[in-house]
């Protein structure tokens, strides 16, 4: 870009920063805000409802009024444009006769035409366009400043939200191993017994006068020990009268939570009792720390790898050492003893690239061959073990519901119910005998495979890790 062009653009920019143009842009943005502002409600405002005009009511398309535009075009009048072009050829524009004589001069060659077009572009079109571009540049800069401020506020909110999650999860513990048929009321005895066996919890209640120094444990109900919790134990209900195998405990202080975890944390667990004389054979209650939601999302790829290791027959039943601070999974072994030659099988990295938070999963070559192997389920439509475990771990029961919903009205279900089947597509598997058990792939399997290859559907989220 030549210096002359820069000078012309600087002049246009100086003109765009004049007060009339800035005032019009301010009116334009203000009108846009008024049109997009909905009526106040108690959830967003505690002020009284303002008396506004009907024009300020929220509409689906915010169209500014005439006159309040983002840019203010400045066009030259016809006579002024003629004088500007003549001035480029050295004509005195203050002399109307000289200007008239210039335009009466005959044009003989193509070069004369190009010179006239060039002069018109230089003196008329270019200043008009540079003025519009300069005004638009100032408007974009203002929008950029607003976006930057919004990003800063969102970053602050994200930081506060993560801090709140970390603080809240620091008071919580997760108890697992509960039978799905045991409702929350039936779990209270075991929870109360575990709380009552913790010395720090007993001392906490005695210091506050809620528990006598000499008390009879048999006369205290399990609900009494819930005084050390912020709320009642949380158990997520499921369909069919079943409940989650996890119950969440929210303690009142960090010391109580730490004491409870120190006493009952670990892999062995505590034998489950429904009442003082009724045990549940083969059931043990395990206690584990609770992590924030954002941290669980960052750790989710490792959980997929752990599920793959536990599911594959070559590594099933072996011990896995996980270094959560460095997001590293060590090679599965028969024991958990320390070995200096132990190999890291996978590691998850997070870094910022170009203003975006990205992750990179690195796995050992042997582990990569295992992950890229065939799926373990015979009727699976996935291409590899990695895709199968990713979908089952990340989507869980929702994936099963989606698969079942696809079968409703399909060829298999219709023939099973004794109804005529609809015309299925050619890419679905045929059933040679409707009376025999079906060994074909689920209907729509080929379609889902094509969608997964094309980057659609849930299967597209399972990006293979790098070896």
Q: Walk across the major sheet and give the strand order.
A: 2-3-1-5-4
What share of residues are in beta strands?
5-15%
**Are there runs of 5+ residues with pLDDT below 50, and where?**
54-60, 409-467
C-alpha termini separation? 48 Å
Total beta-strand segments: 9
The number of helical runs is: 14
Largest sheet: 5 strands, antiparallel
Q: Shape, please?
A: elongated
* SS-based class: alpha+beta
In oligomeric terms, what are we looking at? single chain
Radius of gyration: 37 Å
Output mean pLDDT: 77
Topology pattern, helix = H, strand = E: HHHHHEHHEEHEEHEEEEHHHHH
Write down the domain tally. 4
Helix content: 40-55%
3D structure, described in words:
The chain has 467 residues and is α+β, with helices and mostly antiparallel strands. The protein folds into 4 domains: 164 residues, no CATH class; 121 residues, Alpha-Beta Plaits (2-Layer Sandwich); 77 residues, no CATH class; 81 residues, no CATH class. The chain is built from 14 helices and 9 strands. The strands form 2 sheets. It has a 5-stranded antiparallel beta sheet, with helices on one face. It has a 4-stranded antiparallel beta sheet with strand order 6-7-8-9. A hairpin with a 2-residue loop joins strand 8 and strand 9. The longest helix is centred in the first third of the chain and has 60 residues. The two termini are 48 Å apart.
